[in-house]
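Q: I have 139 residues here and want to know how they pack in 3D. Can you give me a structure?
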Amino acid sequence: MRVALDTNILAYAEGVGDTLRCQAAKELIGQLSPHDVVLPAQVLGELARVLTGKAKRTPAAARAAVLGWANSFAVADSTGYALTAALDLTVDHQVPMWDALILSIAAENHCRHLLSEDFQHGFIWRGVTVMNPFLALKN
């Protein structure tokens, strides 16, 4: 089953965030088959921003991390169709644009799940179910 990963999953796996989430993200990614994982290009761009902003990494270090992820999993580009569908998501479901684009790319790439803590857990759109793998960690 194909799954897409949101930026927060990768950021936690890179050590940005609390210890529990960082460890959980690493374990989760370790359990996924590389052939079943899709990384929207939008996610990798956001990860670069998080790594240089929040994590205070150099641009070269952020680039190395992002390219490492891109070499490990399939990268899905944004398309005009995905953009249009994302705009519809913003109108129909009030999903923020950049999150909507990630979900739209997941659907376009036949993913069944989007792993993220930025959406409502269980939200289903065009065959993609959003799953928050950190739900049990919330207080």
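Q: Anything worth noting?
A: The mean pLDDT is 96. Strands lie at 3-5, 37-40, 74-76, 113-115, 124-125, 128-131.
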